[in-house]
């Protein structure tokens, strides 16, 4: 019997295994918020890369890093960290086969794409016995630690990471976990040959998996119906049913016999061997996998875990705001607004400026631009006043000014939009921010069709970055100046990978569609690009939110 649950299980376990060492990341999408209660292989490697040589002068730093990771200095768990670090750094296979040595391996694990590639390769390169040992360990941790609703989390990576908390593992589990992770790293560096199952072998294993699931349920019709509902409804099923179904499936795989069991385990992690160039070559302007959606889901789960362990109202408010931001990016605006109100109640008024920015973003996403401005205007006035005394303060409020600019644009209050945009500063983001600001200025002026709105500062900004920005903003500025650079832009976007590809592609689609509609008077061309933008579904993108209203 072929079970549709296999697809759900594959997604769950692939997310869990491939990302069990995944920290929260933020390059434009996610901010780093390490959880002292959840320590994984990657967080240990991050500490190891910076504590390879413990000298008297660095001993305090070493201990503080351990404390931050939730490890008591001098404890057995600290000894595990130090021993594993030394083992990696002195391993001849890693030293010989990883360019730059073990420290580079640690840095690679901090990069999401490189980390996934390493672990996926490692999983396939492991021996069948090691693969089964790792799978049994994960199942053991799930059985021991997972509550019936999987902590209320919907993101499998966060669930598996929480289940594999070093604080709750036994000493034997810690040693087994890190030894298996080390083996994965080693076989990835060694790049031993692998043999993937044939389609016939895979089909046979899937059939055996279906029988194993039925056996696990012991013929209980109600449980079988429950499992099928989980498989068919996927993300729409209850957390309790999804958690239960995952547990059943884990044990069903373990109960199988080899070689079918190992075929199933290998299938969970298709070996991926990509160089940076091949990864770029594989990237598509309209990628099918939604990296931004996954990022926001993972960030949401991480913030939920952080909120559970918050030590003060202010800390809790910050993590609630983080959840609200993620929910807003996932188009779950009502939930986001409810959480941001809770965050504001907990936060001190003099420490809530970042929470206010998130509240305004939520209101804008709900197409309530005036409400967003009502929230933002006191903050903008404060920032402008503070700038007179302490130049540079405006940069702290960059997000506030950009959201206010979009709100004024939505209300077609063009002069207010320009006056607000000129105060948007973000030196930490570098030239790309100012190139983007110049592009947004071009859009405002063309939409308003009013030459009296020209702003000398923003005009100079746009002209400069049209000539000097090497990225897609510079290309789009040339497009808005009348140059036909469509092919060049497409090639540039195809050279960008994953979430960055989606982010850049969404901006290209919106601004090129807006050029079609508001400059060329080509509404059909604009609608065609809007269809592509909707297909791309760049969750969290202001251009997608706004584009659906005006294109």
Can you describe this structure?
By secondary structure, the chain is mainly α. The protein contains 29 helices and no strands. The protein has helices at residues 5-18, 41-50, 56-68, 76-90, 92-97, 102-109, 112-125, 128-145, 156-163, 171-190, 199-217, 221-233, 239-255, 260-268, 276-282, 291-308, 313-329, 333-346, 353-365, 369-389, 398-410, 414-421, 431-448, 456-468, 472-480, 486-494, 498-518, 523-536, 542-550. The longest helix has 21 residues, at 369-389. The radius of gyration is 26 Å and the shape is globular. The model is unreliable at 1-58, 106-115 and 270-288 (pLDDT under 50).
Number of helices: 29
Helix content: over 70%
Mean pLDDT: 75
DSSP strand count: 0
* Low-pLDDT windows of residues: 1-58, 106-115, 270-288
Q: Report the C-alpha radius of gyration, rounded.
A: 26 Å
Using the alpha-carbon principal axes, give the shape. globular
In terms of DSSP E residues, the strand content is under 5%
Helix vs. strand class: mainly alpha
- Tell me about the largest β-sheet: none
One letter per element, helices H and strands E, the order comes to HHHHHHHHHHHHHHHHHHHHHHHHHHHHH
Distance between the termini: 48 Å
In a few lines, what is going on in this structure?
This protein is mostly helical and 551 residues long. Helix content is 70%, strand content 0%. Mean pLDDT is 75; it is low at 1-58, 106-115 and 270-288.
